[in-house]
Hints:
Number of strands: 0
Helix content: over 70%
Distance between the termini: 37 Å
CATH topology: ABC transporter involved in vitamin B12 uptake, BtuC
Amino acid sequence: MSLFIESFSYEYFLYAFIAALILGVTAPLIGVFVIQKNLSFASDSLGHIGIAGAGIGLATNSAPILVSVGLVMVGALLIFEVQQRFKASGDYALAVVSFTGISIGLIFSSKSGGSSSFESLLFGSLLTITKQELVIITLVCLVLVGVLYRLKNVLFSITVDTISAQISGIPINAIQRFFYIALSTIILIGMKTVGVLLVGALIVIPAGCGLILAKSLNSSLAYASLFGAIGAVTGMYVSTVFDFVPGATIVVCLTSLLAMVKVFSWVNLRR
């Protein structure tokens, strides 16, 4: 414990801890709707598009994160269109996009010689976050939380009964496009923290915990953020004490929390 507390005297650790906590609170809020809308695979696909962007950026001597931003944003809207127009084969199309994204990223990164930069985007580089990046992450997440709070009932209505929502005059396509943009934004932030290969877990695992325990939308959102925060803090503690990779450790801690929640829920049902 003393080692963990002492680590806060270093700026890099403090920035990393705050960033992990902020993302741990924000990502699961989107995750609740991702699970309800059966979009877990779509979030992975967006991450893999980000891998392609990173590889292209490294190979062309461009900023990998900027190329990834462009591709992920465009990819989010394309995935929305695919799922709207080809509902029957939507998962197949997402699988093709997902694996193609990984392959393109690996091909370009192998030609760029920037393997360390590419790996940092794959697995995250939480401990290298700067003060400026932390400010950007904080502001973006605050905006997302505020907008999601305002739209939570609308998003829930669209998820539960799309036809009724459309009849009531809700601009369904516009709201859903926003949702995909919000999801891609969280994934882009996650590229810096836990990496594109693991950010999907940060989105859906704590959200799954919340949905298991909660009986209403508001409580599921609250539980999801709570478990995300607990996973982030626990993961940072364990990674510091045992010298593990922070991003992956956070995900393992979240998985452990999910297992405990499942057991707790099962025991309650058996009573």
